Amino acid sequence: MNGTVLVAYGSTNGSTAEIAEHIGEVLAKEGLDVDVRPASDVADLVPYGAVVLGGGLYGGRWQRDARRFARRHRKALAERPVWLFSSGPLDPSASERNIPPAPGVRRVMYHVDPRGHATFGGRLEGDVKGRIARMIVKSGRGGDFRDFERIGTWAAMVARDLQAPEG
Fold first, then answer.
1. Quick one: which of 54, 59, 92, 125 is 20 to 30 A from 165 by CA?
2. Three-class secondary structure of residue 102 per DSSP
3. Containing domain of residue 119, as a range?
4. Any idea what DSSP says for residue 15?
């Protein structure tokens, strides 16, 4: 693969941003040039040879910046290797089984034909944005359900795929 790998993300409370940073660290350790950025900050995909795009799930919907990024860059995404990830289940289910993509993510998949998608557990704790998020935390149903070992394994698989000889 030629070029830098962009890891772009849409995150409201920071959990998905931390997952994206971890993915970027793993890709860099595997020898790839990586740029980790909020999806809303990316104007052009020309410098990037591949894209990993992630978004937090809020009420079953992908975070707004991730959705907008996918819509704005649909044509460019279809022209390069792409992987998608979602974060959000506030329980251990994402580490216990493969969770299918949310409907909005499936629409993105239809347009960009990604090489893969994974759903990772989310984190919702502390001082969070949004009335519903605050209610979840106050009710005691929040917590950190991210599995960084699983995230790292997935990112290493992305790196291996990018480094495999094309043919």
1. 54
2. coil
3. 4-163
4. H
pTM of the model: 0.91
CA–CA distance, 81 with 65 (Å, rounded to integer): 20
- Between CA 135 and CA 117 the distance in angstroms is 29
One-letter amino acid identity for 71?
R
Helix (H, G, I), strand (E, B) or coil at 52: strand
CATH of the domain at 116: 3.40.50.360
Domains contained in the chain, number? 1
CB atoms under 10 Å from CB of 64, counted, come to 15
pLDDT digits (tens, 9 = 90+) for 95-139: 888 888 988 899 999 999 999 999 998 776 667 677 766 676 567
Q: How far apart are CA 24 and CA 29, in angstroms?
A: 9
Which residues partner with 116 through β-bridges? 83
Beta bridge partners of 123: 144
